[in-house]
Design a protein that fits this description.
Layout: E1 6-14, E2 22-29, E3 35-41, E4 45-47, E5 50-51, E6 54-56, E7 61-70, E8 74-85, E9 93-104, E10 107-108, E11 114-115
Antiparallel strand pairs: 1-7, 2-6, 2-8, 3-7, 4-5, 8-9, 10-11
Protein name: CARDB domain-containing protein
Amino acid sequence: MEAGETAVVTFSVTNNIPDRPVDARLQLDLPSTGVSIAGVEGDSVESRSSTNFVTVSGGEQKSLRVRMRFNEPGEYQISAQSAYYYGNKSNVQQKAIKPISVSVTSSSSVDGTPGFSAVGTLLALCFSAYATARKCRN
């Protein structure tokens, strides 16, 4: 992968509670430099490393396509958590999402001027998170 390019990560939220909406977001564990969220298809960016909360109606699924920009060469281990809640934002729960590995390297172009080439290897490109919960019984 070339430095400066974006990779797409899909975040899917499935609400298994038929009568209550769930609010969920993706929080990426990104290094302080070199990688950031460039955009979100299906919602919007809250910060350089998280999406805004999206609401998923009971019994439905919603997917967000998150574009991550890799601006600097290097080896990146990107992990994430889904954060979700039903009704009361003070009861946010989190679920870890399997990490991906991304290798981004730079090289010189053919004419000798600095440039980038797609030498990097993207080992995994898709997170899949399912925010699920069980109804509380009194």
